[in-house]
Amino acid sequence: MRALIDILIQYKHWLLFLLLEAISFLFLFSFNGRQRSVFFTTANDVVGSAYSVISSITSYIQLQEENERLEATNEQLRQQLYTMRQQLEDSKLVNTHPMKALPPLYHTVPAKVVNLTLHKANNLITINKGEADGIRPEMGVVNSQGVVGIVYMTSQHYSIVMPLLNVNSKVSCRLRHSEYFGSLIWQRGCANIAYATSIPRHVKVKKNDIVETNGYSDVFPAGLPIGAVAGFGDSADGMSYMLKVKLFANFTTLREVSVITNYHSPERRLLEQQAEDPAKQDSILAEQEKRKAAELKELEQRKAAEQRAVDKEIQEELEKQFIQAQGAQTVQDTEKADTVR
Fold first, then answer.
1. Computed over its alpha carbons, how large is the radius of gyration of the chain?
2. Which residues partner with 194 through β-bridges?
3. Contact at 8 Å (CB) between 186 and 169?
4. What is the pTM of this model?
5. pLDDT tens readout for residues 83-125
6. Residue 296 belongs to what domain range?
7. Do 256 and 108 touch, CB atoms closer than 8 A?
8. How far apart are the C-alpha atoms of 150 and 71, rounded to whole Å?
9. What is the pLDDT of residues 203-216, one digit of tens each?
10. To 10 degrees, the CA torsion angle through 243, 246, 251, 257?
């Protein structure tokens, strides 16, 4: 306090001068309209400029937080855009390849899924239709998007379906617009991914090619969509492709299915009547096994013929290259001999 009093005494003349100046300016701007107008205009400009500078400084200080908020918003938008693009691609793929109409020979029985599993190796689906509705084992099951599986067991009012998502499932398939065929299997893991095996390596395959049923059995007619090629690699033996297939049927939301029947076929009716006679069952079963063995042998022979054709083409190409190389060597030897002479 003593130091403050000493400063005031030391600079009392300057303080008195500043006080008198302030009083004079107060009287000047209070009782003179023109000077008061000029003062307030100038003061407003100065204060506005000061506020502008302070606002710029504050905005610069808060710029880091604003950038972080913008980056978080951009990341959310990118995730939403990616999700929408995936949904759009999936919807386009499904809508572009809807379930085709079944041939007149085939009829369907609509059913509801009452239970299913997706996390096991041997997944099964239970539907609310059974033998009373005309359903028997070995019948195909589809929905509006594609193939679902094959009926495995039946009771009077319920049926168990072996879906494509079962390690024991094996469905004959082919590439659309191609006669090359293979088998569709599941190797656990994803609920929308299966694999098509035994596709020859010389077949031209590209992403999004449609995989469909080939009609080599009475279970499914030819041309029912199964999925689209999502990638491809070599099989375990390296002799064929193993195609990664994204299934059209969405098993996680599966609620409505249809069981394919063809009981209006006279041949099937006759076969079932014969099967009811115990005396003929053994012979019928033996005939069926014989027919299946013949079909399997025919398939193996066809694959072997295709492989031999490919090997022959490769051998002819190698022989052609060898002959060209020999001809070129002969020309070089002749030129050398002429040079020596």
1. 42
2. 245
3. yes
4. 0.52
5. 676 666 555 554 455 565 666 667 889 999 999 998 889 999 9
6. 265-341
7. no
8. 50
9. 888 888 999 998 88
10. -90
Q: How is residue 257 written in tokens? A: 């299915």
Q: Are residues 256 and 320 in the same domain?
A: no
- What's the longest Cα–Cα distance across the chain? 138
What are residue 283's phi and psi, to 5 degrees?
-65, -35
Is 232 part of any domain? Answer: yes
User: Token pair of 171, please?
Assistant: 């469905």
Whether residues 187 and 321 fall in one domain = no
